[in-house]
Write the structure tokens for this entry.
Amino acid sequence: MEPIANSLDAVLEAVLSKRRRDPTQLLQILREVQEQVGYIPPPALTAIAAALKLPRARVEGVAGFYSFLHLQPVGKYRVLFSDNATDRLLGNLDLLGTMCQKLWVEQGKVSEDGLVSVDVTSCTGMCDQGPALLVNGRPITRLTHQRVNEICELIRSRRPLSLWPQEYFRVEDNIRRKDDLLNTVLEPGAALAAAMALGPEAWLGEVQKSSLRGRGGAGFTTGVKWEACRNAPGEERVIVCNADEGEPGTFKDRVLLTSYPDHVFEGMTLAAYATGARQGFLYLRGEYRYLLEPLEAALQRRREAGLLGQGIRGQAGFDFDIEIHLGAGAYVCGEETALIESLEGKRGTPRIRPPFPVIKGYLGRPTVVNNVETLAKTVLIALEGAERFAAVGTAQSTGTKLLSISGDCAFPGIYEYPFGVSIEQILEDCGATDVQAVQVGGASGTCLASYEFHRGIAYEDVPTAGSFMIFDTSRDLFEVARNFVHFFAHESCGFCTPCRVGTSLLQNFMDKLATGHGAKYDLADIEWINRLLKAASHCGLGLAAANPVVETLIKFRPAYERRLQSLDFAPAFDLDQSLAEARRMTGRDDADAHLSSVEAHR
Amino acid sequence: MSDTKKFLLDGKPVVFQDGQTILEAARQAGHYIPHLCWHPDFPAHGSCKLCIVKVGGRHVSSCAMPAKEGMEVESNTPEMNGERRALLQMLFVEGNHFCPSCEKSGNCQLQALAYDLEMLSAHFNHFYPNRPVDASHPDVLLDFNRCIFCELCVRASRDIDGKNIFALTDRGIHKHLVVNAESGRLADTDFAASDRAANICPVGVILHKRQGFARPIGERDYDAKPISVVAMEEVEK
Ligand SMILES: Cc1cc2nc3c(=O)[nH]c(=O)nc-3n(C[C@H](O)[C@H](O)[C@H](O)COP(=O)(O)O)c2cc1C
Ligand code: SF4
Ligand code: SF4
Ligand code: FES
């Protein structure tokens, strides 16, 4: 993954021919060119456009959409600190400051010698072993000041990443509690054999009987989705495994893909068997690039074992294979229609629904999009039967749920529980004391205060895609909410007016409050923006973007009021602040260079 | 008679055919629903959200939502118009709209809608983005300061002109248009003033040179009648 000074033409030719000059592979092509060149120079965009017979502007538009793609040089070493609220608790910004100072580089800029750039990125899914960063796309976990100092040394001495201590790149599973899924040892092919003994209709019936619901957030009934795809008109059907895992604080799909890849791939094949799909995709978030090779190897093993490809398990006509597509830093691509756009090599903009993907998805084909964990769960249904599966959990939420637990607790990591488990129980198990709040379901989820800890994890009570972030009483929940608002503003795809503008307005309001310039009037505006986001957003991102603020405003209002000026209205324009540049240029910061003191003199 | 399907728009029955969206059916029946990114010659885009209506208590984009028998649609209500006004305010503050000096004044759909929905102030703080102007083309000027990202130029150039002159890049609040040239200059594309894409922008981004302020005040599109009336007269033509 080291940027190599290779001739651009040779790189382009190799990547383009490997990707068959297929326009749906555009994002993969851009990514691979960048992996070799370090960034994507303008002539490369022109050449790629010509080779794929796409307008250059469209190629530029796609490249510009994904935050991990760069159209300008970003340094030989590109360091990105994960900036989730949990990384903040662990002091990531302090470490970032240290690194910038040591390397003589300003955050977000490239050092003058072109050696390094340092910046932040959205949650990288390492919250249980943070603070974490990505260097040229590879994760480094468990950062300390010492480790940061060592990394600065390695960068200064231009040591190739392959020669850095391998210990840095270790990513732990941290599985703390196993239940039905994590306890299941799967002999590859065993679940398929069980389903094939039933036949596709009866197998689909079994999935429906299990009442399995999607683990990716929305909680849609999986059997219903599969049946709709199976019955949709069209020749080709597609199964997509959503491994975008972008919701801040979620990392359970990473662990499944690391240690249970056969469960996931077998689940996809089970879905193909039920729906008649022949084509499969795993959409892997760019942050998990390091999992690509092991996952490719797992796919290859399955092909060799006759579990993928033509005539699966010897049954003529049962053809199905899986291709891995990497994302490139865009949370919105977890939304299923944006994901499909991205799979087609486009900007990750959510589509108009209806039609839903089960009717018209990838290239217009009926497409099932399921979360990693959902698909892994179908293996359990095949092996043990729907009844056994449905006996666990609650009536409306059958089976177990994987939780990614991080923040203020003694034992962060992965916990598998039957649905219905109470927040209290979870907090006790992970060694969390003195808890002020728990953010369940990630930035777009819900913030629970201590009087709600008796509630349980279930679709009908506290639903979650798996993120569970704990904040103790020493934490400032306003800052947590502000972090999430910045996340949404950064990740908004910008397609629709309310979210494109509203998330940035919200960010500005939160920043205004943070600097002590807010007034009651601003809180009213925040609530108004929330209403517009809820009313008019095109997808779930905008819909949820104000949740963290609105909920903490209700439940932890003092955290906001503490910051308000007593007046009802304070202008966003701050005269003293606008003099900051003049102060910087003149090197002054004495009392007389500040407006407040000038006023006080009068 | 039994096979005419109807829904209720602000309490009034509207007849529709299968496959029509709420906005299309309403328009055909002579009812105006505000819109910016929707255009009769193109499939729905669904990005500006000015066309939001409430159906059974839920908000939907009327330009994209298929009409269904018996729907009860709320559109011209203080609540919906209040939300639309706020969306307009968002569009105004994210760009740089100095209407008095804009050549499109009086013929601009954004401005006309703002008048019609009685938007009296921008309410939110302006972003004052830095968006350079492209004056390279001999016949057409691009003033990106006013872009509302309706993508009509993108769609017209792609689907009608077959040229793909425009595309969007970046994302979120940084989203912006680019043109199809490595230099980034319109002059280096095969864009022509006669392209459909050169004549479709609802605001003042894509402007023909040497024609500024050609129509005097009083004779411009929205001088005499509000956009809600002008848009419906266009249907009748
Ligand atoms: C902004 C946004 C981000 C999402 N991110 C993810 C994700 O990372 N992983 C995921 O499985 N689902 C995600 N979803 C939900 C998907 O759209 C979709 O509902 C899900 O993949 C369906 O799978 P399931 O039925 O198995 O849950 C996201 C939705 C939205 C609106
Ligand atoms: S809500 Fe946000 S992320 Fe979703 S389509 Fe609109 S701008 Fe894009
Ligand atoms: S230039 Fe005009 S037509 Fe094109 S996206 Fe912007 S506002 Fe729409
Ligand atoms: S007109 Fe419907 S979203 Fe723009």
About this structure: DSSP finds five helices and ten strands in chain B. Chain B has a mean pLDDT of 96.
